[in-house]
Structure formats: structure tokens, C-alpha cells
Amino acid sequence: MSVGIDLISFYTSRYYLGLESLAQARGVDYEKYRSGLGQEKMAIPPPDEDVITMGASAAKPILDQIDVNDVELLLFATESGVDQSKAAGLFVHGLLNLSNRCRVVELKEACYSGTAALQLAAAQISQSLHSTKALVIASDVARYDLGSPGEPTQGCGAVAMLVTLNPRILALDPEAGFHAADVMDFWRPSYRDEALVDGKFSTKVYLDTAVSAWEHYVERSGRTISELYRFCYHLPFTRMGIKAHERVLQAAEGSNDTAKHASEAVSEGFAYTRDTGNSYTASLFESFACLLDNNSELAGKRIGLFSYGSGCMGEFFSGVVDPEYQKHLFSADHKAMLEDRTQLAYQEYEDIFNLKVPEDGWKYVFAQYRTGPFRFGGIEEHKRVYEAVET
Ligand code: CAA
Predict the structure, then answer these.
(1) What pLDDT score does 256 carry?
(2) Which of 22, 99, 232, 271 has its CA 20 to 30 A from that of 316?
């Protein structure tokens, strides 16, 4: 019996900064961002949006289609969690009225933990004696210091996936390739809101990890690269996906003439990330959702996926797309959401960036911005207050 992704839904902020504005403010040629990094916009969460509201908003369209009592596992993957102790998934559990008979936990390993959540959920569902479902949510806000090289790769977004037996989108293959190592390429001490990164080194570690995880995947599966039809990568910025696939092609085929093939194999999964920026744990799945929404010929095809989390952990895995997958996508909603966003002026971006959640324990009610169905309404006695948005 197969196990994998039954439904997949993506959500991002209703606000973005065009990278032309950022380039102008930083005195940088916009082409560096547009063609050098492959990025055009970065999604900026307003003050009443965070990983909880984005994750719940991504999951709601899925839960609207099922009996919520069937969800017995909720795994929430994030790098930008809001509490050192309480799992982000428990806030979402409340907002979405999930059953009390549900196992809920938060997972962390930089941008990788969404993949760990997916694989752990698949393992639990395949072993379950009952016909249960798992909800995996990957949700993040990517933040770097103002004026730093990482700044143009900021962004935010969330992806929710329902994991079941006989999935209607992607049946996961049992084989996966791993690469783990203790390196300091990107990290965020608990006292910082912005990540620290050794930028050039991080891209080298990412590329070496992709090759190593690919080679392990080949050893485990016995497959050749020609058995995979399309590839999705973790995308800190979209050019990274091309570079990574070129390296994997070189390792697989021993050829240096890989640029055109690399672009063909990965770029259908770029459009959403180009317009949102990095969404850390959600990024790989944002790219997969984009591929599904933009290619109508994936039925029965095997897709390769590479997940990377700095620190570092990489995993190459694969799955086969269901013949009927197009009937179960949220493509129109994804595209409408991305088209209906508000562009921020540079100063508005900087003002939002500099706002901090009050730390004095008094009661605060936040101004209402454009969000999805849920918002972060305020804070009282150090407790975050979330609410459904009246429509
Ligand atoms: N026109 C066109 N292209 C231009 C250009 C111009 N005027 N100016 C520069 N470029 C090109 C450069 O040639 C370069 O392309 P190549 O890499 O193909 O040579 C590209 O634009 C970027 O230029 P730089 O390398 O000079 O850029 P930078 O050093 O200022 O910043 C970065 C690049 C280090 C990746 C930085 O964006 C960064 O620190 N990002 C955050 C860290 C990151 O995303 N790392 C990726 C791997 S780690 C990971 O994946 C985990 C994660 O999510 C963070």
C-alpha cells in the first residue's frame, strides 16, 4: 500500500517588497537580484501575521475537505517558532478545532525539518492500525540583518500537507539518501531574530550536501537520474536550484555540459519562490506545489526532491505523482493569492521589519492588516492571542 502526500496547500503574506525598491535603497544593480539570485519580490509578514497564522491558513483549505477528527498527528516544522516551550502546532490545533485525540509536536533543523516531518508522518501512517491521517505544516519567516547580503533572499510562507495511505498527489518511494554534518554555515542563536550566515560557505556546503545525499539515494534505490522526470530543491533563492541540479547532473552523468538540462528539470518549480523569497522549511514544498500547479503532464512521473537545512542536514528522496493529481490541487487559489497582494514602499518594509512583539507583559491589541483566515490579534500577560478573521 502506498503512503504520501494526499493534499498540498500553500499560503504566503498579502504584502511584499519588490526587489527593485530594495536594490535602489541599497545602491545595488537590480539585475544582481533578478538574474544573479533569481528573485523579484520578497513576501513580508505584517505585524499580525506569523508562522502560526500562516500555517493555519495553509492548512484550512485541506481541513475544509476532510473530517478533522481523522487527523491523529500534527507535525509543525519551523525555524522561526514563536515560543521556546509550547509547540506552534498546538496554537494551530486550537485555531483549526482538531480533535484532542491527536499527537502534536514541533520539529527543528533549520530549513530541513519539513522533510523530517513528512517522512515521520508517512512512517506513522503506514504503521497505523486505524485509517488515520497526519497533517504536516512547514511555516517560516526568513529574516536577515538590514543591509546584509542575505537581505534580498528574505521571505515567508507556509505549506500544509495531508499525509495518508493511497495518496492522491504523491506516493513516496521508500528509499532516501541522507547527509548530516556539524557545520556553521547559517545559524540563529536564541537571542536573535535575524539569522547569521557565512553566505558563500553556505552555498558550498549546500552543493556538496546535495551531491552526497544524491549518491546515497542512488546506492539505496539503484535508480539512475533518467528515471526521474523533474526535480524540486530547497530554494533559498531560485538560482540555487539551478546550481544544485547542475552539480547533481555532473555527479550522475559525469558531464559538464549540464546548464540547459538543469534549467529544464527544475525551473517549473521556481515561480512562487521568485515572488515570495525564502520560506525555509516550506521552501522545498512551495517549489513542489508550484511544479504541480504549472505542469499538467506529471501523471505517473517520478519526481526527485532535495531538502537542505543548514547546520547541516540534507535528504534526497522521491515519489511518483498520482494519475489523477490535477483534480486535487489548489492551483487557482495559490495563483489568486499571489496576484492579490499589496506592494510595500521601502520605508513601510523597514518600519515593519523594526517592529518587535512587546516584551513587558502588558495587554496589546494589534492593528488589523490584510491576512488570511487567521491573525495574531495581540498579546496579554506574555500570551499570544490568535483569532479568526471575520469575512
Ligand atoms: N547582474 C547580474 N548578475 C550579477 C550582478 C549584476 N549586476 N552582480 C552580481 N551578479 C551575480 C553574481 O555573479 C552571482 O552569481 P553567481 O553565483 O552565479 O556567480 C550572484 O549575482 C550573487 O552575487 P554575489 O555572490 O556577489 O552575492 P552576495 O555575496 O552579495 O550574496 C549570498 C549571495 C551569499 C547567497 C547571499 O544572498 C546570502 O548570504 N544569502 C543567505 C544565505 C543563503 O541563502 N545561502 C544558501 C545556501 S544555505 C541554505 O539554503 C539554507 C537557507 O535557506 C538559508
Answers:
(1) 66
(2) 271
